[in-house]
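Newbie here. two chains, one complex. Structure please?
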Amino acid sequence: EIVLTQSPATLSLSPGERATLSCRASQSVSSYLAWYQQKPGQAPRLLIYDASNRATGIPARFSGSGSGTDFTLTISSLEPEDFAVYYCQQRSNWPPGTFGPGTKVDIK
Amino acid sequence: QVQLQESGPGLVKPSQTLSLTCTVSGGSISSGDYYWSWIRQPPGKGLEWIGYIYYSGSTYYNPSLKSRVTISVDTSKNQFSLKLSSVTAADTAVYYCARELSDLGLDPWGQGTLVTVSS
């Protein structure tokens, strides 16, 4: 089973700052990695697929990069609505699509 | 656009079977492009992928839950369902249904429904 780790667990930033979130896989997943955003009380929302492709309707301030075992989600300039929990999910060894434990981006 | 909505009891007794239904609107569940999945999230914790069904009826279950999970589809009602048997308090979670593309991910998701296992 492919295990995903995310760091940091919590990221405290101010609006307008740049957020850099990391996801590491226990073995190569090529580029088959997705990122989701979950706001309190809401369902997750697909942000990025295939490591670097934005899903429909996702603002350009969200970008994904990486391949193999190391991946990054970057939010170029945090908006108030971006404070949420972010999960990565590997799609390489699918099914099942295992998720990482999440990174919480909160307001500093 | 496609929307999904979960429904079912919010309280289930230990050892009983949890049953949920997901109703799909704005698109056909019989579209051959998609899988129809269940995911759960215990309160304050992360996401666990439960399994999927294809419109033809083929399924895949997470090995960690396989012995207790059944997912079925009713194409005439544009619905798919989840049954989880022999539940314990550890099965208390928000249960989500979602449409899934193998190479893209889960999109969209239903709003989720909280199921509590308690006597």
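Moderator note: Chain B touches chain A through 23 residues (CB under 8 Å). DSSP finds no helices and eleven strands in chain B. Thread marked as resolved.
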